[in-house]
Amino acid sequence: MSKAIVLAAAFTAVLAPAALAQAPAGDRWTIIHAGAVLAVPGTPARGKTSLIIKNSLIQELKDGFVTADSIGAPAQAVTVVDLSDRYVLPGLIDSHVHITSERARDSELQRVKKTGENVALDGVVYARRTLDAGFTTVRDLGSRGAPALALRDAIRKGQVPGPRIVAAGQSISATGGHSDTNGFAPDVFPELGENICNGREQCRHAARNQIKRGADVIKITATGGVLSNTAAGTGKQMFDDELEGVVEAAHAMGRKVAVHAHGADGVNAALRAGVDSIEHGTYLTDESIALFKKSGAYLVPTVLAGATVVRMADEEGFLPPAVRDKARQVGPLMLDMLGRAYRGGVKIAFGTDTGVSEHGKNAEEFALMVKAGIPADIAIRMGTVDAAELLDLSKQIGTLEPGKAADVIAVASDPAKDITELQRVLFVMSNGRVHKAAPAKVAAKP
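Now predict its structure.
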C-alpha cells in the first residue's frame, strides 16, 4: 500500500462524521438566537439578538429572536440554533502557535523518531483541540518541514476540521541560532539549508524560499530562545543586515515578518529593521516601547509559554540543563514585561506559543493578561479585533458584522466579568458550520 493511501486513511479515521458529510445543495441559512452578543469587542454588548447567517457569512444582526419564516428563505434550508441563555462573541484568534507539535518530556527523542506523516497527523489532532477551545483562527509561527502548510490547505478545503491557519513554514535562523538543530549529532540532522542564513543576501534568499514553499508570513528567530538546547543565552543572534535582508525580501513579496526576540538588543534591532511583530519581548526596555510606538509593530506576549516552561523546569529531568536554566530566568519576567508594555501604549495581539503549552488550553493566556494588569474587556479585544488586524484579516474576522466570516463562539456568561469563562467555550461555529454544539438545556423540575 502506498504512503499516500496510508496517510489518507489515517486522516479519515480521525475525522468526525459531520466533517465528512457532503454539503447540502443550494444556499443554507442559520439563525442564532443569542442571549447577549459582543459583536465588536471593545464596545458594549447587545442584548437578545438574532444572528442571521447565509452559508459561511454573517448577513445581519437583528434585535430579539426572529423566526425562520421571517428571513425570506426556504424553511427546509434554515437551521435555528438556540443560544438564548448564552453569551456570544467572535471566534478567538491566537497569533502564535506551533500547530503540529507539543512539548513533552521526550521531545528530543520524538524529533528523530517521528516522520513527516506522524507530524501531520499530530497536527490534525491539535487543530481539532484548538477549534474545540473556541480558537477559529491561528497563526502558526514555525513548524518542522511542510506538514503545517499541508494542514492549512486541508482545513481551507474542508477536508479536516480545524482553525483557519496563517502559516510561516519554517523559522529563519542564523547558523547555531534558536531555530537551528542544536544539541544533536551532525549526522542526525544534515544541514537544513533553506531556513538557515548568514549575511544579508542569504537571509533574503531564506525569506524568499519560505514564500516559494507557501508561507503566509515570515518568522525570524532574532535572539536566543528558551527551548533551544544550547547555552547561547537569549540575546541577539542575527546581525542588523540579516534582519533587514529578511524584512526587505518579505515586504517586497507582500508578507509580514514576525520575530522571536527575548533580549532587548534583539527586540530593538528587529523593530529598527521594520518588522511587524515581536514575539515574547521578555527583556524589552523603555527604548523598546518607544520603538514599538514609532513603528506601529505589535507585541505578541506569549505569557502562557513563560509560565509553562517554569513548571517544566521544576520537574526533574523534563528539560535539558541548558534549557532548564534559561526557563527559570525568562519565565518569571514575562508578566511584568506585558504590564509595562500595556501601560506604555504598545499595540498587543493575543498569542500563546501553544505547542510549548498544551493545545486546547490557549485561553489560559487571557487570565495571565488580566493578572498583568490588562482589563478583561481589552484582553478580549486583543484576542479578536487586534489579532485580526495583525494577521491582515480584519475584513474577514475579529467581529460579528455583516459580510464577515461566521466564526462564532458562546460561553455561559460575560467573560469581561470572569475572563476564565473563555476556558469553558460551549459552542463553536467556524465559517458558518457548527463544529461544537452547546450542551442541551436541562428542563426545570416541576
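The first helix runs from residue 3 to 14.
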